[in-house]
Amino acid sequence: MATPSERAAKPATIRDVAAAAAVSIGTASKALNGRGRLRDETRDRVLAAAERLGFRPNPLAQGLLAGRTYTVGLVTGDSYGRFSIPVMLGAEDALGSGQISVFLCDTRDDPIRERHYVDRLLARRVEGVIVTGRRTEPRPSIGRDLPVPVVYAMTRSADESDISIIPDDEGGGALATRHLLATGRTRIGHVTGPERFQAARDRARGLSTALAQAGLEPAGELLFGQWSEEWGRQAADILLHAAPDVDAVFCGSDQIARGVAETLREAGRRVPDDVALVGFDNWEPMALGCRPPLTTVDMNLGEIGRLAARHLLDAIAGRPAPGGVLTVPATLVPRASTRRST
Amino acid sequence: MATPSERAAKPATIRDVAAAAAVSIGTASKALNGRGRLRDETRDRVLAAAERLGFRPNPLAQGLLAGRTYTVGLVTGDSYGRFSIPVMLGAEDALGSGQISVFLCDTRDDPIRERHYVDRLLARRVEGVIVTGRRTEPRPSIGRDLPVPVVYAMTRSADESDISIIPDDEGGGALATRHLLATGRTRIGHVTGPERFQAARDRARGLSTALAQAGLEPAGELLFGQWSEEWGRQAADILLHAAPDVDAVFCGSDQIARGVAETLREAGRRVPDDVALVGFDNWEPMALGCRPPLTTVDMNLGEIGRLAARHLLDAIAGRPAPGGVLTVPATLVPRASTRRST
DNA sequence: GCGATGCGAGAAAAGGGTTTCCCAACAGCT
DNA sequence: AGCTGTTGGGAAACCCTTTTCTCGCATCGC
Questions:
Q1: Pair A247, A188: CB distance under 8 Å
Q2: A13 class by beta-carbon count within 10 Å (0-12 exposed, 13-18 middle, 19+ buried)
Q3: Which residues of chain B are modeled with pLDDT < 50?
């Protein structure tokens, strides 16, 4: 049974390397970092010793001296992770290639835990913080005079001087709508989540604007409700009564779209022949499992994370961007649910 | 708006505290850590100064001296995150309460990136590593003579001497089956994922064993196929022809179960009155969106993560567990799809 | 042959905190 | 008064690495 001390056969330090190469510590450091002037023979000797001992500089010591840690904190409240995970991975990707490591913190949407974690991150001297969430609704700032820069991704700080990066919901709504128009649909209904969500309002606005530009109006009322399949099923019923001639439905989420698809099928309307369907989120298991597979709007969550990371890196490097909300364009993912019937 | 230089107002060091309290650095340290003997008045004075200056010990400096970093690495290859995220959050939860911070690494299932990240983690002197995955299939060990302990969670090392923590698929299968038996079903079919997956085989074995104990056999063949809804739809057709008197179906995933539910409904079989249905995963958006809401088996992914974290903490503390595979019991989540008809 | 130059390498400090060791002062005892 | 014991606090070493400063020595030019 390996005790920690056996197992953790103390990593070699620069002292060990220096001793093995019969030089001073300072010289070893210079050889390893290519600083100063050294005889080639000396340098090679040190490098060989380092190689042999498997030497890796201790980043704690380096950071201590440089006053940097090359770490950032990633604070998420999204225990389910459906939206924030792609954002987190995008951020991790962008930061990781910059040799920055990421501390993960899950606040479970609890402000107390959040405060606690932010404190701990600051104690660890992270150089920046990214905050992600499950919704893009404005949330309280984690603090306006933190000693390090903060970027909000896939969530939005209520403080206008913070930097927030969110998907372009309005643009996504317009994108979906123009796609439906391009396939010849003109009587387009809308079923979406609760009106209290800005994302729902923005997507609806994208639809209305794009329709207005084509001289059209939505078919039936805009149906705000829940983000669930069940609401999709109910709303489709409502829509079929209010606007029986509807030939397309733009839905505020893929889950809603699945519910709508089910009711449409049971009402004898064929998708896409009679009614075309567009979802939102490009949540693949949902969108691909739908019958037929669902055309949907992809928010490019990974790109949101990457952009947030780049902004954070800039701010860390002393080039802070002005505060405000930045949006990342959405992308349309065409599938069978809007195929032209020919 | 704070400029970077204003913003990075050098955190207070113990020197500052000592100066403010008019004591030596050593005394300040003792006061802050409750070591040594100090007059109450002195201790209070130091604490007050620390409070006033917002002093937080620099963990780099502490770690440097103690030879510890209080960090672990979390390596995941599951870019989608559906399974590994709950595991990660469970692990983060257990580690976080132990004051250990977690470095997140996404390998995108690429062995090169994985190697790279493990190297970087070791360079950062993490005290342990947790590896998570999207599937519980055996995977290559990340290395058997790493200087720190490693625990695999929701994935399984091909090296038997590593510690792997995975869900109890067989027990989960048995649990689902006994639940169906308890509601009076006796002709139980099975639709699941590809046979090459050990998880699929184990779940099927759980079913077969539980049925055998009741003196029963599965209805029709065990239908191995894909993890998709589409396969669920196809397989339900097959099953209805092969065993028209089937009165329950246990499915290897919630997605499959949804496909099965759809075909059953279209074939005029009522769920749960004519045919009861059990899924696997307790993937809530899928299970709750199903009509009717799906009874399913929850693998307790968070618990897998927490258990992995506890094992890792034990190993770090010098109490390594023997290598091998540990399973976490699954839980049945009863919903309408198996409600007794009465 | 002598000063100037440059090369190569070591010594030392810095960075922030903990811990051990040591010392001064004071109280209590005979 | 002198000795012992206790208490409170300071000095310094240590962790590991980087960087600056210094210095010995050899070479070069004059």
A1: yes
A2: middle
A3: 1-8
- pLDDT tens-digit map of A167-201: 999 999 999 999 999 999 999 999 999 999 999 99
Whether residue A12 has pLDDT greater than 70: yes
Do residue B59 and residue A101 have CB atoms under 8 angstroms apart?
no
Residues 60-99 of A with CB under 7 A from strand C: 61, 64-65, 67
Nearest Cα of chain A lies from the Cα of B204 at a distance, in angstroms, of 23
Among B65, B270, B300, which residue's Cα sits nearest to residue B171? B300
Asked whether the beta carbons of A30 and A36 are under 8 A apart, the reply is yes
B158 φψ region: left (φ > 0), alpha (ψ -120 to 50), beta (else): alpha
What's the half-sphere exposure (Cβ side, CA atoms, 13 Å) at B29? 7
Q: Is B327 helix (H, G, I), strand (E, B) or coil?
A: strand
With a CB cutoff of 8 Å and minimum separation 6, the contacts of B325 are B156, B164, B165, B166
Contact B254, B282 (CB under 8 A): yes
CB A37 within 7 Å, strand C? yes
Higher-pLDDT residue of A58 and B78 is A58
Residue B300 has phi, psi (to 5 degrees) of: 55, 55
Query: What pLDDT shows up at residue B340?
Result: 79
Q: Which of residues 110-129 of A touch strand D (CB under 7 A)?
A: none
Contact B104 A92 (CB under 8 A): yes
Between A82, A123, A323, which is nearest B56 by CB? Answer: A123
| B42 CB neighbours strand D below 7 A | yes
- The CA distance from A215 to the nearest CA of chain B, in Å, is 36
User: DSSP of A63-92, one letter per residue?
Assistant: HHHHT---EEEEEE--SS-TTHHHHHHHHH
Q: Buried (b) or exposed (e) across B24-52, using 16+ Cβ within 10 A?
A: eeebbbbbbeeeeebeeebbebbbebbee
Q: How confident is the model at residue A266 (pLDDT cuts 50, 70, 90)?
A: very high
Q: Please state whether beta strands B295-298 and B331-333 pair in parallel, antiparallel, or not at all (unpaired).
A: antiparallel
Question: What's chain A's length in residues?
Answer: 342
Q: Report the alpha-carbon angle B211-B217-B223, nearest 5.
A: 100
**Enclosing H/E stretch for A278:** strand A276-280
Q: Which of A197, A168, A194 is nearest to A332 (CA)?
A: A168
Q: What is the pLDDT of residue A9?
A: 63
For residue B300, count other CB atoms closer than 10 A to its CB: 21
Strands (E) in B19-86, as ranges, are 71-76
pTM (whole model) above 0.85: yes
